[in-house]
Amino acid sequence: MKKILPLILLAGVGFLSYSCDNSSNDPVVVPNPVDHDTFPIMMDAPGSFTAANNYALTADINIETTDVVLVYRRAGNAWQQIPKTVYVDPATSPSPRRFEYNFVFSNKEVQVRIENQNFILSTLNTDQANDFLNNQTFRIVLVPADPQKNKSAKIANVDLSDYNAVVNYYNLDASKIKTISTH
Questions:
Q1: Strand intervals (E) in the chain
Q2: Buried-state track 28-58, b at ≥16 Cβ within 10 A, e below 16
Q3: What b-and-e string marks burial along 111-124, b requiring 16 or more CB atoms within 10 Å of the CB?
Q4: What does UniProt give as the signal peptide span (predicted)?
Q5: Do residues 59 and 45 touch, judged by C-beta distance below 8 A?
C-alpha cells in the first residue's frame, strides 16, 4: 500500500501538469460566435409619397456596413415585406396598372421609394392615393449580418418575408419601437 500511494500521487501531479500545458498555442475557434456589438432594432418611418419628394421617403439610420435592413409596409393590421408589387386596378382592367414599393440603404440612410414604370402616380384617384401614397408607415428592422453568419443553417431557417418570424427570431420588443422622421 505504501508503494502504491506515491505512484498514484505522482501520476496525479503528472496528469495535472500535462493538462495545464498550453505549449501548442493553437487558436481557439468558437463555432457560433455571438455578435455583442450589434443588436436588432425596429423603428417606424411614417410619411406620404408625393411628386415633391419624388415618391421617396428617406430615413436617417446609423448601422455597421455589414448589417442588414429589412423593410415592411403597414397593410391594414399586418406587415408586408417590401419590395412589393401593387396592382392598382386588377378587377377593372385587363392590363392593370402597377407599381412597386422598393428600398435602398446604406449605413447612414434608408430610402423607401415607389418605382412606377407603366403609369404616372399622380393619376391615382383619391381613394387609391389614400391607400397607397398618403400616410404610409414603414417598419425598418436593422439586424446584424456578419457575412460568415449568412452562410449558417440557423439564419437560413428564418423566413425574412414573415414579419412575426423575424420579430420572434431576434426577440424584438414591439413596445420599444421608436418613430423616426422621414425627409
A1: 41-47, 56-60, 68-75, 78-81, 84-87, 98-105, 109-115, 136-143, 178-179
A2: eeeeeeeeeeeebbbbebebebeeeeebbbb
A3: bbbbebeeeebeeb
A4: 1-19
A5: yes
Edge-first strand order for the sheet with 56-60 is: 56-60, 109-115, 98-105, 84-87
- Domain assignment present for residue 19? The answer is no
CA angle 91, 94, 97 (to 5 degrees): 75
pTM of the model: 0.72
Residue 31 domain-assigned (yes or no)? no
Q: Are strands 136-143 and 56-60 parallel, antiparallel or unpaired?
A: unpaired
Print pLDDT tens along the chain (183 aa).
Answer: 667 766 676 666 666 565 555 555 555 444 554 544 456 789 999 999 999 999 999 999 988 887 889 999 999 999 999 999 998 877 777 777 889 999 999 989 999 999 987 678 888 999 999 999 999 999 999 987 654 544 444 555 788 899 999 999 888 988 889 999 998
Looking at the structure of the chain, the number of domains it has is 1
Q: Is residue 30 part of a domain?
A: no
Ramachandran assignment for 7, one of left (phi > 0), alpha (psi -120 to 50 degrees), beta (any other): alpha
Examine residue 136 and state whether it is found in any structural domain, yes or no.
Answer: yes
Q: Which domain holds residue 95?
A: 37-179
